[in-house]
User: Fold this.
Amino acid sequence: DSEKNLSDLIKTAIDRRGKVLIPVFAVGRSQEILLVLEDYYRRNPDFNVPVYIDGMVLEASAIHTAYPEFLREQLRRRILADRSPFESPMIKVAKGTDKEEIVNGEPCIILAPSGMLAGGPSLEYLKMMADDEKNLLIFVGYQSALSLGSKIQRGQTEIPTIGDDGKTKMINIKMQVATA
Assistant:
């Protein structure tokens, strides 16, 4: 069961005081992951770990809440009863300047696009989190064969990237990598 696998992986990383990065596509899979996490939180009230959402995930989730008539009935009822899982207290909005603070702070879960680590917030988080073996990277979506996500998924541990200075810099992947 992929939901149980996802929650077990996350709980293990959080227990070792790590952070969890889940690269997602802004629409669809990210809301599905939010629903899984929100359900886990409801069933495990002692699991009090923030879920930071970054990039377009916030806007896409807001659209789900604004147009519940397009969602399945159970979810629609929760949103209309003012209990939208997309507005759960566990969800925190990551602002552009907060990334280092989030990565250096308490254990947390981070959902950020791009889902294949082609760029965007997920790549920025990866650069800051990759060298800490307590951290966990979970792939929950498709990785095209030539994507950075696919290379990491296949076990590549040294990733060349362009630094802020425009020079090639290596990212060493020491964090745990999993696919759920």
